Amino acid sequence: MTSVLFKKKDDKIIAFDINGHAGYASEGEDIVCAAISALSQSVIIGLEEVLYIKPDYNIKDGFLCMSIRDNSIEDIEKSQVLLKTFLKSLQSISVSYVGYITIQIEEV
């Protein structure tokens, strides 16, 4: 199962951690893992190449963490449409593929 933790401050998403593999299908055929991976990496590309925001992130097999908590308030504000869309997209996947992804939101 993939677990996703979003971290919010003052109702703004400032970070997320993604851990694990969904286990929906075998490696290379797991559409849930592929969707989560594509969406999460698109967020980082959008932040860097469209919004010109430099997030801190780390990507490894079965793990991705991203944070904009040390960026300016302006950067955090600009990133919200992208990050909230990402959250809504993952929530949609979690409804369709119950038991393969869990999402938590933590106020920090």
UniProtKB/TrEMBL annotation:
SUPFAM superfamilies: TM1457-like
Keywords assigned by UniProt, alphabetized: Hydrolase, Protease, Ribosome biogenesis, Thiol protease
Biological process according to GO: proteolysis
Superkingdom per UniProt: Bacteria
Annotated Gene3D superfamilies: Cysteine protease Prp (3.30.70.1490)
MF term (GO), any: peptidase activity
PANTHER family: HYPOTHETICAL RIBOSOME-ASSOCIATED PROTEIN (PTHR39178), RIBOSOMAL-PROCESSING CYSTEINE PROTEASE PRP (PTHR39178:SF1)
Family, per entry: Belongs to the Prp family.
Protein name: Ribosomal processing cysteine protease Prp
